[in-house]
């Protein structure tokens, strides 16, 4: 079975390779192709993978290419994990928004819109090429903003593109642990859009055990989301929000903390990652040790400003080591390839699951996965508090997809201005002007 990773020079590729090496089952991946536009990143990451493969006689061989058609030819699965304009683009997304006094974040608010506007045209081109070159391949989308990117790709790939994120799994794992419930026995009732969802029930033998958590003040703040949102707010919602909802529910505090910080997350990672890739080029030291210490530092500092603003303290050690995207992707790929019948929370077309949204809207919900792809479970309607946010943000995503498809700056302006975290059309217009001035990929947007 052949796996192609687009964005194959990316920092998280060794996590995927580690998961592949650990997969001993029949039908495992037997060849990995890494594709990237940047040859030197491919070389650097290949060196890390070579260290990982040492000692395994049957490690999947890895080849690299900068040619997209070559990468896609013969692929059974394609992992799509690119970052258009790299971390420099991310730091522009963040800085421009913060300078306008609104949230600067890579997937939420103005920054997410800017990121989507430059990513979707590339994602659509990749979707088209995949449909032409490898029509039987399944595409697993890691690329952020994952909800809108998956939806845009689904226009060309239908059910053969599935978006993933590690947040719902992480949240589920933490809440189950706080409740002392075994994951195998539980069915998670999670619903929303990517980075905009809520865990509103945990069903064990037909009973919802989540309400128990709200009556236990110690357990309720014993995990990341409890500390981030506070017991009172969790009780008020009667649900556990995805950590990214901190940017909405505590917007002032999140913006203030990000503005007060010395540098944005993107600027920090740009420096950190540049050091890593440069050190690998120099050929000194162990590539794997350099990668591992960089990864650890990245994990430790994840969402640091939000945690500081909430007084939430450090991340739990178990959250630093737990598998993220790679585990979701591998479980998804295995379930499709081997018809394993697994339940996963994924970004898929709504297809009637939520009456509030049309059939093509990509949502993030529990799905049954089999050889035929991901099928959302029937789910209860969104709670009242979520209706406004979900429909507003879906309208933003739709406007971004429209702008990317038509080149309409007006649609892009609409996306900016209707976002719940952008509070003025004047600000929205200025944001768009500034993003266009700094990001050449947005030159396609015209009146
Ligand atoms: C989580 C989110 C991803 C996001 C990542 C950012 O895993 O689910 O969507 O890309 O965090 O982490 P970073 O280290 O890049 O800030
Ligand atoms: Mn995510």
**How many helices does DSSP assign?**
21
Structural category is alpha/beta
Q: Note the overall shape.
A: globular
Taking the sheet with the most strands, its summary is: 6 strands, parallel
Query: Could you give the count of β-strands?
Result: 13
Radius of gyration: 21 Å
What are the low-pLDDT stretches, counting only 5+ consecutive residues below 50? none
Amount of helix: 40-55%
Bound molecules: 6-O-phosphono-alpha-D-glucopyranose, manganese (II) ion
Mean pLDDT: 96
Read across the widest sheet, the strand sequence of neighbours is 3-2-1-4-5-6
Report how far the terminal alpha carbons are from each other.
Answer: 46 Å
Beta fraction: 5-15%
Give an account of the 3D structure.
With 447 residues, the protein is of the alpha/beta class. It is built from 21 helices and 13 strands. It has helices spanning 13-22, 39-53, 68-72, 86-99, 110-133, 146-157, 167-179, 210-214, 217-220, 224-229, 231-237, 246-249, 251-260, 265-282, 287-300, 304-310, 317-321, 325-338, 384-406, 409-418, 425-438; strands at 2-6, 31-35, 62-65, 77-80, 138-141, 161-163, 186-193, 196-204, 207-208, 240-241, 342-349, 362-370, 373-376. It has a six-stranded parallel β-sheet, with helices on both faces. A hairpin with a 2-residue loop joins strand 12 and strand 13 (373-376). It is globular, with a radius of gyration of 21 Å. The model has no long low-confidence stretch (mean pLDDT 96). Manganese (II) ion binds next to loops.
Blueprint of the fold:
Blueprint: E1 2-6, H1 13-22, E2 31-35, H2 39-53, E3 62-65, H3 68-72, E4 77-80, H4 86-99, H5 110-133, E5 138-141, H6 146-157, E6 161-163, H7 167-179, E7 186-193, E8 196-204, E9 207-208, H8 210-214, H9 217-220, H10 224-229, H11 231-237, E10 240-241, H12 246-249, H13 251-260, H14 265-282, H15 287-300, H16 304-310, H17 317-321, H18 325-338, E11 342-349, E12 362-370, E13 373-376, H19 384-406, H20 409-418, H21 425-438
Parallel strand pairs: 1-2, 1-4, 2-3, 4-5, 5-6
Antiparallel strand pairs: 7-8, 8-9, 8-10, 11-12, 12-13
Helix pairs in contact: 1-2, 1-18, 4-5, 4-14, 4-21, 5-6, 5-19, 6-19, 13-16, 14-15, 19-20, 20-21
This protein binds 6-O-phosphono-alpha-D-glucopyranose and manganese (II) ion (MN).
């Amino acid at each position: 079975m052949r796996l192609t990773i687009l964005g194959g020079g990316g920092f998280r590729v060794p996590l995927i390779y580690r998961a592949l090496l650990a997969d001993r089952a029949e039908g495992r991946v037997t060849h990995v192709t890494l594709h990237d536009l940047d040859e030197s990143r491919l070389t650097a990451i290949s060196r890390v993978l070579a260290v990982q493969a040492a000692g395994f006689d049957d490690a999947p061989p890895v080849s690299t290419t900068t040619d997209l058609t070559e990468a896609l030819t013969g692929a059974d699965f394609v992992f799509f994990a690119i970052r258009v304009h790299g971390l420099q683009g991310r730091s522009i997304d963040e800085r421009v928004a913060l300078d306008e006094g609104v949230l600067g974040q890579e997937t939420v608010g103005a920054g997410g819109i800017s990121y989507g506007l430059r990513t979707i045209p590339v994602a659509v081109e990749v979707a088209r090429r995949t449909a032409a070159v490898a029509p039987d391949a399944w595409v697993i989308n890691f690329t952020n903003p994952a909800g809108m990117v998956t939806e845009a790709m689904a226009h060309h790939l239908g059910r053969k593109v599935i978006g993933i994120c590690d947040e719902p799994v992480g949240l589920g794992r933490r809440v189950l642990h706080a409740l002392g419930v075994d994951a195998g026995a539980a069915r998670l009732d999670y619903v929303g859009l990517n980075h905009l969802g809520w865990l509103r029930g945990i069903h064990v033998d037909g009973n919802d055990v989540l309400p128990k958590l709200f009556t236990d003040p110690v357990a309720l703040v014993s995990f990341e989301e409890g500390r981030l949102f506070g017991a009172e707010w969790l009780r008020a919602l009667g649900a556990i929000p995805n950590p990214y909802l901190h940017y909405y529910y505590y917007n002032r505090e999140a913006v203030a903390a990000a503005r007060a910080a010395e540098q944005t997350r993107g600027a920090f990672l740009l420096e950190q990652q540049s050091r890593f890739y440069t050190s690998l080029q120099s050929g000194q030291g162990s590539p794997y040790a350099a990668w591992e210490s960089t990864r650890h530092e990245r994990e430790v500092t994840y969402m640091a400003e939000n945690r500081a603003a909430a007084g939430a303290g450090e991340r739990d050690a178990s959250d630093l080591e737990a598998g993220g995207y790679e585990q979701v992707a591998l479980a998804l790929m295995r379930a499709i390839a081997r018809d394993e019948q697994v339940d996963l929370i994924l970004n898929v077309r709504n297809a009637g699951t939520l009456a509030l949204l049309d059939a093509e809207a990509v949502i993030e919900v529990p799905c049954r996965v089999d050889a035929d792809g991901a099928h959302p479970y029937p789910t209860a309607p969104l709670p009242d508090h979520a209706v406004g946010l979900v429909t507003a943000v879906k309208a933003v995503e739709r406007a971004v997809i429209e702008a990317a498809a038509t080149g309409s700056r007006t649609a892009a302006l609409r996306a900016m201005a209707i976002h719940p975290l952008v509070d003025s059309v004047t600000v929205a217009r200025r944001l768009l002007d500034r993003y266009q001035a700094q990001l050449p990929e947005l030159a396609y947007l015209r009146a």
